[in-house]
Design goal:
The longest helix is centred in the middle third of the chain and has 26 residues. Strand 2, helix 2 and strand 3 form a beta-alpha-beta unit. By secondary structure, the chain is α/β, with parallel strands linked by helices. It binds NADP nicotinamide-adenine-dinucleotide phosphate. NADP nicotinamide-adenine-dinucleotide phosphate binds next to helix 1, strand 2 and helix 4. Belongs to the short-chain dehydrogenases/reductases (SDR) family.
């Protein structure tokens, strides 16, 4: 039977590369995102199915359910990003609260809500992979905290789906290119500093991350669960 996958945030960056890998492995792939036109364009390119919805909006998720596959073998919770990038530094407590809530919503709640909505559809031996970040180790304010919380939630999810042979893992990239993550672009000195921290002297590529996700999504990876896998060139 053909395995089915859903990749949230699949129109760009890591999500698009992951969807392409899973397609190459013969899976039926649904990609999601908020920008319907871009999503449709990427879906045509990859031979995937586009379903547009906001992963943080319970009503939008519920409305999208009829368009999503009735059996899900692979769920990649990739949608997210640092919502502070490009935003002014919070000037007061109200703005700080908003900044943290936006990051928690985009990176933690999106994954929790989408996974919970699809829990009954997860097949035996399902694979759930959620994007974490090197930022979970520290720094990046609400973004880092949200990605750390993803790891905590993932361990609980592993127990929930483990009884049916399912696995749940986090893939935690370091600097990865090319994506829309840094919006208008990463300043060259900051990029050089991040590369300097790696052991192999380079930025990650979207294909580096997609390759790790593809392995964890495979039937062979059935005894790896509840883990967070750094894919960051050995960044220290
Ligand atoms: N690039 C890096 O250096 C890096 C490092 C560590 C971790 N990560 C993580 O990797 C994941 C993918 O990021 P990326 O680097 O590939 O950046 P990206 O190109 O910006 O991809 C993020 C994707 O998620 C979608 N998305 C964002 N919020 C969404 C929402 N609420 N509902 C539905 N879709 C949403 C976006 O599409 P729409 O805007 O159309 O919705 C976009 O396609 C993220 O979780 C990010 O935190 C990236």
């Amino acid at each position: 039977m053909t395995r089915t996958a859903i990749v949230t945030g699949g129109a760009t960056g890591i999500g698009k590369a992951t969807a392409a890998r899973l397609r190459a492995d013969g899976l039926d792939v649904v990609i999601t995102g908020r920008r319907a036109e871009l999503l449709a364009e990427t879906a045509r390119e990859l031979g995937a199915t586009p379903v547009a919805f906001d992963a943080t909006d319970p009503a939008a998720i519920t409305a999208a359910l009829p368009a999503l596959p009735p059996r899900v073998d692979v769920l990649v919770n990739n949608a997210g990003g640092n919502t502070d990038i490009g935003a002014p530094a919070p000037g007061d407590l109200v703005a700080l609260r908003q900044s943290w809530l936006r990051n928690l919503e985009a990176n933690l709640l999106g994954a929790v809500l989408v996974t919970t909505a699809l829990l009954d559809r997860l097949a035996e031996q399902s694979r759930v992979i959620t994007l974490g970040s090197i930022a979970a180790r520290g720094g990046a304010a609400g973004y880092g905290a949200a990605k750390a919380a993803v790891e905590t939630w993932n361990r609980e999810l592993a127990r929930t789906i483990g009884a049916r042979g399912g696995t749940a893992n986090v893939v935690s990239p370091g600097l990865t290119e090319p994506t829309e993550f840094f919006g208008g672009g990463l300043p060259e000195d900051r990029r050089a500093m991040l590369i300097e921290q790696t052991a192999n002297g380079r930025a990650g590529t979207v294909d580096d991350i997609a390759a790790a996700i593809r392995f964890l999504a495979s039937p062979e990876a059935g005894h790896i669960t509840g883990q967070a896998l750094p894919v960051n060139g050995g960044a220290a």
